[in-house]
Write a structure and sequence with these properties.
This protein is of the alpha/beta class and about 450 residues long. Helix content is about 30%, strand content about 25%. The protein is globular and about 60 Å long.
Length: about 450
């Protein structure tokens, strides 16, 4: 597969680095020559310094032989124009990053598809949706549904009173909780572990667990967690993510939104009639206390400053707020932020990569989720008619190191994998995989 990534900074570079272990031809087009020089020293990717809306630059990148063009610059107008030009120059598929969620309406999607933009991704809207889902599933650090919720992946931090701490994976199945789950990975002190039967759980582990939705209560007991009822939410930051989150949550929760920019605060007040909008600085802890931070069930930091988001979440935790979510732009902050007590980290680069991954992975990828704190991904594949995975039971498949099958969806039936299970055409298979194994595991289902 030939892939062109057009970017203007970290998002494009992050995508390119994430894909370096896959067996694809990747070309990065970016106007920042110094950034490209650094990328060239770290990878063997082909880079071109230039403007992606230049037909000459696109031809230099061999856009005519391009299977997939990803335009992820910060300016959505450039992304849309890049995709339109690339399609006219015979690129097979195009994906544009956008910031205006209005363009995602069916009417606008169809219009831009006719112009040559096959897909559009809005990281801010996806981030807001993820925040909403997390507040509805308060025990999980992250979670992701497959096939409309038939299977769910929960990322749970094991607390000190978890009954599985100091016990191995085999013993998990022997509890009296009637668990029907698969532990696909453990994140421990920054290291991603694909567990085996003798792997021992430790306090503070992030356990990646796949199971049916009716297993949530049992999973919470395993983690040593208790259900939190979220009624009062404080949001710091009234940008696109804060606005989308408030609009989604306002009918079910009491929302207080802090915004430093007066004009934006006035606009928010006009659009969100049932939301308390406060014009003020989110770093002013006394202001947050005056507005009831200590009485909030959840605090969400989504300002333009990662440092502000992290620090305000830590203050919220100190005041007894049960659930904290921080937007962190620097991926290097993610593990640190989680280690110091923030419940969930949102990162737009990972969100963008998650959406785009389904177009990149060989095989029929139905959905995917790039996970915070690790370079791993969980992907839902559709098993093809002639796929190698249909020829042998799971126990005899050449599943590469760094990957594991977490669950199977057959029609409306959910199946936890066993060595004897025989996959069939049309099955949906949920796979947890590290980058080094992604290309190999995808071929099993193609």
């Amino acid at each position: 597969m030939n892939i062109i990534i057009a970017g203007d900074g970290e998002v494009g570079v992050h995508l390119a680095k994430s894909l370096t272990e896959l067996d694809y031809n990747i070309t990065v087009v970016d106007p920042h020559s110094e950034l490209l020089k650094q990328l060239e020293t770290e990878t063997d990717l082909l880079t071109i310094a230039g403007n992606s809306t230049s037909p000459q630059v696109l031809r230099e990148a061999n856009v005519g032989d391009c299977d997939l063009l990803l335009s992820v610059l910060h300016d959505e107008s450039i992304n849309l124009m890049t995709c339109i030009l690339a399609k006219k120059l015979k690129a097979k598929k195009t994906v544009a990053r956008i910031t205006n969620a209005e363009l995602l309406s069916p009417k606008h999607r169809e219009m831009f598809r006719d112009l040559g933009v096959d897909e559009m991704v809005c990281p801010e809207r996806i981030a807001a949706k993820e925040i909403t889902n997390l507040l509805n599933n308060t025990e999980a650090t992250e979670f992701f549904d497959f096939s409309g919720g038939l299977l769910t992946m929960y990322v749970i931090r094991l607390e000190a009173d978890s009954p599985v701490v100091n016990h191995n994976v085999r013993e998990l199945a022997q509890t009296n909780l009637d668990l029907q789950v698969k532990v696909v990975a453990i994140l421990r002190r920054g290291e991603t572990i694909i567990p085996h039967a003798d792997t021992v759980f430790e306090q503070g582990d992030l356990a990646y667990i796949i199971g049916r939705a009716n297993q949530l209560e049992n999973i919470n007991r395993v983690a040593g967690k208790h259900t939190v009822n979220i009624k009062n939410v404080m949001i710091a930051g009234g940008g696109r993510i804060g606005r989308y989150a408030a609009m989604t949550l306002k009918d079910r929760m009491r929302i207080t939104l802090i915004e430093e920019n007066r004009r934006r605060a006035e606009s928010l007040s006009a659009d969100l009639e049932d939301t308390l909008i406060i014009h003020g600085d989110a770093t002013d802890i006394e202001l947050l206390k005056e507005e009831g931070l200590q009485d909030a069930d959840a605090f969400i930091g989504v300002t333009n400053s990662s440092e502000t988001n992290v620090l305000t979440c830590l203050h919220a935790k100190k005041l007894g707020v049960k659930r904290t979510i921080a937007l962190v732009e620097n991926t290097g902050f993610i593990n640190l932020s989680q280690d110091i007590g923030i419940d969930t980290i949102i990162n737009k680069k990972l969100i963008t990569a998650s959406y785009i991954a389904r177009f990149i992975v060989k095989g029929d990828a139905v959905s995917s989720k790039w996970l915070s704190g690790t370079n791993a991904e969980v992907i839902e594949f559709m098993v093809g008619k002639w796929a190698p995975a249909t020829r042998k039971p799971i126990g005899q498949l050449d599943i590469p190191n760094g990957a594991t099958i977490g669950g199977v969806i057959r029609g409306r039936e959910t199946i936890l994998p066993s060595r004897e299970l025989q996959l069939k055409q049309g099955d949906k298979v949920v796979v947890f995989t590290l980058p080094k194994a992604m290309a190999l595991v995808a071929r099993l289902f193609d």
